[in-house]
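Morning, I've got a small favour to ask if you have a moment. You're getting the sequence in one-letter code plus the fold written as tokens. Thanks so much in advance, here it is:

===
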Amino acid sequence: MNLRKITLSIIIGAASLGISAQTNNLDPMTEAMMKAYNQLLDEDPRDAETLFRRANEYYKQNDYLKALDDINKALKYLPENDIDTRFQALQLRANIYMMQHKYEQAVADLNAELAIDPQNYIAIYQRATALYELGRYAEAKADFHLLQQRNSRSQEALFGLARVAVKENNLGLAEELCNKAVEITPSNSQVYMRRAAVRAMAGNEQGAVDDYIIAISTDQDNTPRALRELVELSHRKYPTVIAGLSSAIRQAPRNGMFYFIRAMIAQGHCNYLAAIADYDKIINDNLDSYPGLNAALAECYYALGKFDTALLNIDYAISATNDNGRYYMLKSRIQRARGEYDNALSCADKSLEKDPNSNEALIAKALAQLALGESADASVSLSEATMNAPEDPWLAMLRGWVLRDYRKQKANADRSFERVLDMDIDHYSAKSLRGFAMLQLDRKEEALRWIERVLATSDDYDGEINYLATCLYAQAGETDKAFECMAVSLGKGYANYYNWTVNSDADVNVTPIRADSRFSGLLDKYASIFGR
């Protein structure tokens, strides 16, 4: 797999995490079929077969509430002697309950299925899984053994028994069962994904990392998922993930893919110097050629405050491909940081020509307009972005800031800040920015309680949360606490020099403490993480 495909896999994998459970974008054939079902049910609301078919379509669309409503009606109206359809309907309802994590209800339907067909492999497997989720491990183990009786090479049974063994603290048996499953299909990436999941459960994170890397190397089927899992695991065990990737590189030193993945994870943890080293290795040793490498280098140099080098890299990336909308957006940021506001606005417009729906480009455009004194236009750009992403707290903070400080519309600004507090986001996630909105609404004590709770409950694996705490304490006038958090953040390696020294957007920054001698002292103390 080349680096472009790896990049797309990461982007697609990340994007899939944000997809809602329900989609209304149906293809024309499905839309016509649903219309036909609706017409038939308008004529006869007790048409069990049509209810069953429509429920199945809702299920495929991930609309479980509507699917459940239809299948309940279908089961109510199905003739008792229509055993085959009843079995299928019970199977569908059990699937819906499993997706809703309603395992007790699922077990009841699966028992009914097995009363009709005691040998049904899928029903036994689903019941075993539901029982496991309910913590009824002895019963789950019995069902997994039933699967083995029906198929001695059942990987579902082996991995199921391995998960039970972990719960019983029999970690050696769990590893043995997983290895047996891998031996059955060693050329299939899925089996390594499943073993990785069990190993992670058992606390063997290094083994899990090794399996995710093998899955990526085996075939492309599970690459996006394996990458997501590596990234997620790096949030808790960054050194372990990096060690696993470094081991893979030692075994295959000419495999650019491993350097690329290690670089992207390092960059995601604000370890820009390590990321730059790996990106440079790929380019200088001709391990791959892809303009996205130079774009990634540009992002790293921008974060390190080395804007001239960032500009050289982003210009190369732009010139190397026509698919460069995001690259123009990055160039807009870089030029704004260099004080070249007209050029920043021009690049943001070019980015929007390539992708009119890019919120990153709209934000870049708004900030360039603001720097040029065009606050009304900036407000329009942010309003457009907000329509695209109404649940983005950063957008709401930006918009409120512009309305209050530049447009002098306090009432509208307050509504934007209040919108942050109304968003359906984990209240004690640092990225919710709730404390910053509270500060703007003159609710300082609540803001301070919020950040204290965030610090107490969050795993700050790379110092970013303590950076945000530094910002909040600085904005709240709690200078000593700000410097305490700054020291922690830098100690954890938060190396975004741009944020520390330049960023002044939306009052989510450290501007109020930059003139204090302690600020420059801490930056000097940790200069090595910035390459300075």
